[in-house]
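W.,

You were right to be curious about this one. When I first looked at the sequence I had no strong expectations either way, so I just let the prediction run and decided to look at it fresh. Below is the sequence, 259 residues in total, followed by the output.
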Amino acid sequence: MLNGKTALVTGSTSGIGLGMAQALAAQGAHVMLNGFGDIEAAKAAVAQVATGGARVGYHGADMSKPAEIEAMVRACEAEFGAVDILVNNAGIQHVAPVEDFPVDRWDAIIAINLSSAFHAIRVALPGMKARGWGRILNVASVHGLVASAQKSAYVAAKHGIIGLTKTVALETATTGVTVNAICPGWVLTPLVQKQVDARAAAAGISEDEAKKQLLAEKQPSLQFTTPEELAGLAVFLCSPAANNLRGAAINMDGGWVAQ
């Protein structure tokens, strides 16, 4: 379905981003990965599912640095000819009450979770408009729609991502470029695993019990959303069926926001 297209996925060496990169490659898209962690394992995982001659690249841009983000987009265009699909997924987290929130952590979360998407979009969008087709998928969060205590920076950034999504969707409404946000609930990514481990340690409970408690507080389905499910939604958003889906924030959250 995506043969000949190129996808740039930020924060894609693990978790949600890796799942999306694999799903897009399986549809025939060339994929450029970005992120930290085990880069070779991530490249191998994407290459394993790639079809139709799809190729896999990597760029190590620090998503808190605008110049590196621009260089990443340009490198993708140079290597594959275009950025047709941009998935803004890079994210970090810190949990603390607002009066104790470290200023450097606030700045880093806003930079990586929100500003990085703006910088990638502003550089990639002109090429998409010139070619008459593009897909921008911003991985927000259920925290872009509702708040949780002690996550001021993350919630502010994710609400901002949804606002950015709507604005760019309006600016591209008469073009072949669509812009939408995906809002996962709890997904068992490395980011969430840290919160599970912290809860288990603090309460002196097992990891399984900590997972159950985490889900029971917010997610009525009592099951984690999976990267594969979110990747399926990303593939749909890149399909012709989603041509007129614009500026949406789609929550895949086990009923979290329905409460």
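Here's what jumped out at me. Helices lie at 15-26, 39-49, 66-80, 103-131, 152-171, 190-203, 207-218, 227-237. And, maybe more interesting for your project: The chain has eight helices and seven strands.

Coffee later to discuss?

I.
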